[in-house]
Amino acid sequence: MSDALINGLAGAGGGIIAQLLTYPLQTVNTRQQTERDLKKEKRKLGTIGQMCQVVKQEGWGQLYGGLTPSLMGTAASQGVYYYFYQIFRNKAEATALAHKKNGIGDGSVGMFSSLVVAALAGCVNVLLTNPFWVVVTRMQTHTKTSKKSESIHSKLIAPDEVIPAAIEPPPFGTSHAIQELYGEGGVLGFWRGVIPTLIMVSNPSMQFMLYETMLKKLKKRRASSKKDNGVTAFEVFLLGALAKLGATVVTYPLLVVKARLQAKQVTSGDKRHNYEGTLDAILKMIQYEGFYGFYKGMSTKIVQSVLAAAVLFMIKEELVKGARSLLTSRSKPP
């Protein structure tokens, strides 16, 4: 089994576990990002308060709306990313060693090369897996409300007339989201928000650049010490969290724009909520919401993404170690 395939499978496994643990936070964060007209009382609600509100009004299941395509997307995304990341990194390492033989450099992959490798892997990942995330966004932002209020407001209720009971709305599953997207924009509808998402590859690029740099320095420090016990899973957890924190703070506005484009567009009524493209979304957000609009739900995203990234890195490294150890033991003669 190739090293790239090991990293790809380990990344997919780590991504799925991290996604399961942090998915309710992701659902709330997507709703925060796509909310156009937050009322003052809604703004006072924190992340936990909004989660409780969703559970009270729509049920526990809505916190996991879109979980199935999200897990599929996570497995595909992490697998594709780590697979191509390892392939590109192997080529970068081979190039660095070739340069060393020619008297250029020390044979290690530099920070800029790590950034380019991560960016290339990210672009391949985005182009192949964007449809998954458009479907997930639609399902996360779909509000499951009863039709009781609609029936009350649609006509005048006489004093002696019985108010109709709440009618449970039909389920909105993966197939419904796919049909809705295809009906709105055809096949190209599944690549909505791909431009800001491609720019967003700078997030994992920065994340992996910071992670690899910090990990390299830590390993170098451990190697120079008398007691070289390697890097522990908890240390990898902390390095992954720090790397993701730095990358998220810088690139968060692009994430909000992407979510706005992928959510269901308002085709009638207030045109401020209908975005024709990336530039149109950015200009309208600046005009009607100010720069605050680009940072809606950022605190929730930091908690969710940092925790997810830390868990992912920790589990991935352990899976890679286990796979390599298993393959090594099998290759040894009895």
UniProtKB/TrEMBL annotation:
<feature type="transmembrane region" description="Helical">
    <location>
        <begin position="232"/>
        <end position="255"/>
    </location>
</feature>
<dbReference type="GO" id="GO:0016020">
    <property type="term" value="C:membrane"/>
</dbReference>
<feature type="transmembrane region" description="Helical">
    <location>
        <begin position="109"/>
        <end position="128"/>
    </location>
</feature>
<dbReference type="Pfam" id="PF00153">
    <property type="entry name" value="Mito_carr"/>
</dbReference>
<dbReference type="InterPro" id="IPR018108">
    <property type="entry name" value="MCP_transmembrane"/>
</dbReference>
<dbReference type="GO" id="GO:0055085">
    <property type="term" value="P:transmembrane transport"/>
</dbReference>
<protein>
    <recommendedName>
        <fullName>Peroxisomal nicotinamide adenine dinucleotide carrier</fullName>
    </recommendedName>
</protein>
<feature type="transmembrane region" description="Helical">
    <location>
        <begin position="190"/>
        <end position="211"/>
    </location>
</feature>
<comment type="similarity">
    <text>Belongs to the mitochondrial carrier (TC 2.A.29) family.</text>
</comment>
<dbReference type="GO" id="GO:0006862">
    <property type="term" value="P:nucleotide transport"/>
</dbReference>
<keyword id="KW-0812">Transmembrane</keyword>
<keyword id="KW-0677">Repeat</keyword>
<keyword id="KW-0472">Membrane</keyword>
<feature type="repeat" description="Solcar">
    <location>
        <begin position="231"/>
        <end position="322"/>
    </location>
</feature>
<feature type="repeat" description="Solcar">
    <location>
        <begin position="2"/>
        <end position="91"/>
    </location>
</feature>
<dbReference type="InterPro" id="IPR023395">
    <property type="entry name" value="MCP_dom_sf"/>
</dbReference>
<keyword id="KW-1133">Transmembrane helix</keyword>
<dbReference type="InterPro" id="IPR044712">
    <property type="entry name" value="SLC25A32-like"/>
</dbReference>
<feature type="repeat" description="Solcar">
    <location>
        <begin position="109"/>
        <end position="217"/>
    </location>
</feature>
<keyword id="KW-0813">Transport</keyword>
